[in-house]
Amino acid sequence: MNAPGPDILAASSFLLSLLLSYYLTPIFRDAARQFGIVDAPDGKLKTQAEAVAYLGGLAVFGSVLFTAALFLRFSDKLSGLLLAAAVIVLLGLIDDIGRLSPRIKLLVQVVSVFLMMKAGIRIRIEAIPPLACIALTFAWMIVMTNGFNLIDVMDGLASGVAAVSSVFLAVVFHLQGNEMGKILCLSLTGALLGFLRYNRPPAQIYLGDTGSLVLGFLLGGLAIEGDYTAINPYGWIAVLAIFAVPLFEIAFVSYLRIRRGASIFRGSRDHFSLRLRRWKLSAGQTVAASCGAAGVSASAGLAGMFLAPVPSLVAYGAIFLLFLLAAAWLKRIDMGL
User: Fold this and answer.
1) Which residue of 152, 155, 162, 195 has the smallest Cβ count within 10 Å?
2) Can you tell me the distance from the alpha carbon of 9 to that of 184, in angstroms, rounded to the nearest whole number?
3) pLDDT: which is higher, 295 or 229
4) Domain extents for the chain?
5) Among positive and negative, which fits the CA dihedral 118, 124, 130, 134?
6) C-alpha to C-alpha distance for 79 and 84, rounded to whole angstroms
7) Residue 152 neighbours by CB under 8 Å, 6+ apart
């Protein structure tokens, strides 16, 4: 009897992860409510009608972990990435239950990136010295890990955008014949779609730091394994386009807070999604617009990988200009800060 083909395995990993997440999410929701691991409204940043359960990230990561164990052979890279991600999950879980200082969270994230790099996952650019590549890997992973955490301020937003980014990253791996990357990305996509059944507005459960941090870490680590410059030397910009929404958020919020003299680590209503809500969009419309922007940007990034250098730079430049114009417009929305 012939073994199932790679496409069958990929589709099976997506379906299994979706079903697992759909089944596990309400279990973790009820457990979080029972043990009081909830996000309570405070009338400021947390304006939901009632307390909402955390621990959604455990359902998502658990689904991905089980699916990976079933469909993939554990290599040094796979084991290292999942071990490092598990440390991030533990960090987020502790922060959801209690509260950790930004300094401690950053330290644990650095340790996790080190574990991942020991497994052989790091940025490699021939024109850049190895030490600079190591520094670039740390910077990329810290930005990605906290980028998805930063956009997780609205029902369905972080999970929806991450699902879109994960699908496009899976396409990159499919084109390159990287089965490990494709199966992990599709497993993550399935887990997020199963979770979204309970996270869409009005949410019954949140990702929490447990989920939002590990989303950025997993996707950031997987993105490093992609090959974007086989046809176009500027194709590496595609990865920035695939994750344009969380990267835009971290740049936009950091700029506004620094300009105001506020700490970039302290919560505020600077987020682009809250500005769209303040304008006139509903929560559902804001999530849909954000996912649409992620899809358009990722599509342009993917297309740019196969264009000649000059046309690809025009496409990438157009995306950058659109986000720049969006930032200028969003900045004008009065948030009463």
Assistant:
1) 155
2) 11
3) 295
4) 7-331
5) negative
6) 8
7) 158, 206, 207, 211, 212
Write the CA distances from 1 to 4, 5, 72, 209, integer angstroms: 9, 12, 20, 45
Whether the Cβ atoms of residue 207 and residue 29 lie closer than 8 Å to each other = no
**pLDDT mean across residues, the chain:** 92
Q: Can you tell me whether residue 116 is helix, strand or coil?
A: helix
Q: Do the strands 38-39 and 52-53 form a parallel or antiparallel pair, or are they unpaired?
A: antiparallel
Neighbours of 202 (CB within 10 A): 13
Q: Which helix (H) or strand (E) holds 196?
A: helix 179-199
Residue of 171, 162, 220 whose CA lies nearest to 192: 162
Comparing CA positions, the residue from 316, 319, 301, 112 lying closest to residue 220 is 112
Give the model confidence (pLDDT) of 107-130 as tens digits. 999 999 999 999 999 998 877 888
- Residue 314's CB is within 10 A of a number of other CB atoms, namely 11
Contacts of 185 (CB under 8 A, 6+ apart): 166, 167, 169, 170, 173, 222
Using DSSP's 3-state secondary structure scheme, residue 53 falls into strand
Q: Is 205 helix (H, G, I), strand (E, B) or coil?
A: strand
Q: What is the rounded CA–CA span in Å between residue 104 and residue 127? A: 34
Residue 215 to residue 88: CA distance in whole angstroms: 10
Q: Which residues contact 105 (CB under 8 A, 6 or more apart)?
A: 91, 95
Task: Specify which residues 53 forms β-bridges with.
Answer: 38, 205
Distant-in-sequence, close-in-space partners of 262: CB < 8 Å, separation ≥ 6: 268
Query: Looking at residues 183-204, what average pLDDT do you find?
Result: 95
Alpha-carbon distance of 247 to 162, in angstroms, equals 12
Residue 1 has pLDDT above 50, yes or no: no
**How many of the other CB atoms lie within 10 Å of CB of 41?**
13
Instruction: Kindly provide the b/e burial profile for residues 296-306, where b requires at least 16 CB atoms within 10 angstroms of the residue's own CB.
Output: ebbbbbbebbe
Half-sphere exposure of 111 (CA within 13 A, CB side): 12
Nearest to 24 by CA among 55, 53, 51, 68: 55
